[in-house]
Design brief:
By secondary structure, this protein is mainly beta. It folds into two domains: about 60-155, Immunoglobulin-like, CATH 2.60.40.10; about 165-360, Immunoglobulin-like, CATH 2.60.40. It contains one helix and 24 strands. It has a five-stranded mixed β-sheet, with no helix packed on it. The chain has a four-stranded antiparallel β-sheet with strand order 1-3-7-5, with no helix packed on it. A four-stranded mixed β-sheet has the order 11-16-15-13, with no helix packed on it. The longest helix has 4 residues, at about 220-225.
Length: about 375
């Protein structure tokens, strides 16, 4: 089976800020995802001593590259025009993105005539987890010490959007709240279940009311999650063929994995909806591998499926680990599959992959 997204799925970066440790959480927990721009990257090329300490005479059209709503893990290209509003030709020394998610063409040495313009093209890869994402690009112009900042932004979303895209229930935060669940295309749909249970929808009676394009979900962490059984993602099941599963990240002391040593670039791994017995191939990307260290094995702790190591490829400082999910023939319904990968030095990485198995040819809601 080819690698990639199936239906409504993707894999997930985690917020990297922290909250204060508590007795229940001896390790720092990443802060909830926040909209905004990534920290600027300092240009690597030295600015000439005679550079003036001011902004170059450049106008950006548009002022912000807005990629809009982007599916998880999809790359989109944006273009911004750099207009020279001054009376002299300007030369670009270097262009640097603040995030590895952004790739650029080499603009070094290109000149912008007085009154003229040049186009800069940027490709930004969406994170795998729903939510807002920002980055920026720094353009250094010869003769000027201040850089021209170009802002980029996007919202990563499945065809059904959840807002907010996470439950922040770490110690000290409210354990109840409401979440908006809506279709981006405004088409009505049915919420079949949330966390395997009948959803608590505000102002909606599934026995009397017709399907809507937007719902308000009332949630209570203590009511909706059994003690010690909270998973990293709370799964919403729908009748949408293009989005049968929607996930909400549960930010709680028991669900946040603190990487020690080897670090995954993504935490969200899902095979979406699969027909019963189907295998699924996916990639786990790892960083902070030691020189000469390799991944030698994978194993699942689930009785529902096994996770097999197919191969590994080292690309720069990222180890790409190709894995395969092989479910038991009788497995049906939403399935959570914890697994470990092991390195040649004895280190290990804990992850999980999840999705839903349905009978062959099944469409619409599936309860199990």
């Amino acid at each position: 089976m080819p690698l990639g997204l199936l239906g409504c799925d993707g894999g997930s970066p985690q917020p990297n800020a922290s909250v204060q440790p508590t007795a229940a959480a001896p390790q720092a927990v990443p802060a909830a995802p926040q909209p905004g721009l990534a920290a600027p990257a300092a240009p690597t090329q030295e600015v000439a001593a005679e550079s003036v300490d001011e902004m170059p005479p450049i106008r950006l059209e548009p002022e912000v590259i807005d990629f809009g709503i982007v599916p998880p893990s999809v790359s989109k290209e944006g273009v911004v025009k750099l207009v020279n509003t001054g009376t002299k030709e300007l030369e670009i020394l270097t262009v640097q993105p603040s995030c590895k998610c952004t790739t650029l063409e080499d603009m070094s040495g290109k000149k912008i005539p007085a009154g003229g313009s040049i186009e800069l093209r940027a490709v930004m890869k969406a994170q795998s987890a729903p939510g807002k994402k920002g980055a920026d690009i720094k353009v250094l112009i010869d003769g000027y010490s201040q850089v021209v900042p170009i802002q980029l932004k996007q919202e990563v979303s499945l065809p059904i959007r959840v807002s907010p895209s996470y439950l922040n229930v770490v110690k000290g935060m409210p354990t109840t709240g409401r979440t908006v669940i809506e279709s981006i295309d405004k088409q009505p749909f049915t919420i079949c279940a949330v966390g395997g249970k009948k959803p608590n929808l505000v102002g909606f009676d599934s026995e009397k009311d017709a399907p809507r394009s937007q719902y308000l979900l009332d949630w209570d962490f203590e009511r909706d999650f059994a003690p010690g059984e909270a998973k990293r993602y709370w799964i919403i099941e729908t009748d949408r063929a293009d989005c049968p599963l929607v996930d909400i990240f549960v930010r709680h002391e028991s669900t946040v994995l603190i990487p020690r040593g080897i670090a995954p670039t993504e935490y969200r791994h899902t095979f979406g909806r699969q027909e019963q017995g189907s295998t699924y191939d996916f990639v786990l990307e790892l960083t902070k591998m030691a020189a000469g260290e390799s991944i030698v094995a994978a194993a699942s702790s689930s009785s529902a499926a096994r996770v097999e190591l197919i191969e590994t490829k080292l690309e720069g400082d990222v180890m790409r680990v190709f894995l395969r999910v092989v479910p038991n023939a009788d497995v049906l319904g939403v399935t959570w599959i914890p697994f470990m990968v092991y390195s040649s030095t004895g280190r290990q990485v804990e992850q999980a992959v999840w999705g839903q198995y349905v009978p062959k040819g099944h469409t619409g809601c599936y309860g199990r």
